């Protein structure tokens, strides 16, 4: 990956952006796309759109800016900070982790975990997030209250780590890779001067119900939209056999089929991948994709949509893992899709 593109990805990953508190991450994204977009705009909740004005066909690529995390619910008299979930936070991995509480100033803390020597053997359980607490080092509630407030968001303090080869680990890869890819698709569309109007979209609050996509889908009304998100790579130990699928890390971008995924866009993605000599993986989504595509495709009476995925291990943990090669190939496919979009006469199915 070119240094400038990798620096942008790192800045996205290092900027906390839990659902409902995406502003800082959106500023990073907007600063980057302003360099090449014809127009940028935001709505009142912080959804961000950047535009390349090309031909009549309007083609959108969207990722969601938010990540799962926690929120301060109350402060105990003894100074411990009680938390709740933002999105699908995993209660099995939160204890014993470094976290940051994002108030007026960032406050370091740790999610308390009773030492193994003091726990009753044979009675190991996973406390719900609401039963867990953050220790910020305060002596009492008054001291803690001077540092943090109820409603402050909380994120894991892990950032970006390079693993062997082209593997990358970080919290929040779900879905900074999606907003990175949307920006890269727009940059490539501008560079190629494609014969389509291309929108790059960075949505908010996907992790709490696809809310940003519902707002943007109502406002934007493109001819077609691709929602880029991570999807489960099921090639690691510990994945139950019944949950194993065909998606592997390093196997290429993932084209979803079924439910929201429009057949014309499925074919467009596969043809575009062939154009740039990228192998794709296929994934079945019989009922729903679980991504912004589910919100986009019912907007304005029906908008052709596709969920294009990036394989990801350990989703919703502080150590998610992707293969940078998959991400590079994903960007190439999106760029080729933008080029082909202007040649599509009609995205409707042939009934």
SS class: alpha+beta
Integer-rounded radius of gyration: 21 Å
Element string (H = helix, E = strand): HHEEEEEEEEHEEEHEHEEHEHEEH
Shape field: globular
Sheet with most strands: 8 strands, mixed
Counted by DSSP, the helix tally is 8
CATH class of the largest domain: Alpha Beta
Strand segment tally? 17
Q: Briefly, what is this?
A:
With 351 residues, this protein is α+β, with helices and mostly antiparallel strands. The chain has helices spanning 3-14, 23-33, 141-145, 173-192, 211-220, 263-275, 293-296, 324-341, and strands at residues 39-42, 48-52, 58-64, 69-75, 81-86, 98-102, 106-111, 133-135, 153-156, 161-162, 167-170, 197-203, 224-232, 254-257, 281-284, 305-312, 320-323.
Describe the protein in words:
The chain has 351 residues and is of the alpha+beta class. It folds into two domains: 3-67 and 171-341, Zn peptidases (Aminopeptidase); 69-156, Elongation Factor Tu (Ef-tu), domain 3 (Beta Barrel). The protein has helices at residues 3-14, 23-33, 141-145, 173-192, 211-220, 263-275, 293-296, 324-341; strands at residues 39-42, 48-52, 58-64, 69-75, 81-86, 98-102, 106-111, 133-135, 153-156, 161-162, 167-170, 197-203, 224-232, 254-257, 281-284, 305-312, 320-323. The chain has an eight-stranded mixed sheet with strand order 1-2-12-3-13-16-14-15, with helices on both faces. The chain has a six-stranded antiparallel barrel with strand order 4-5-8-7-6-9. A three-stranded antiparallel sheet has the order 10-11-17. α1 packs antiparallel against α4 (173-192), α4 crosses α8 (324-341) and α6 (263-275) crosses α8.
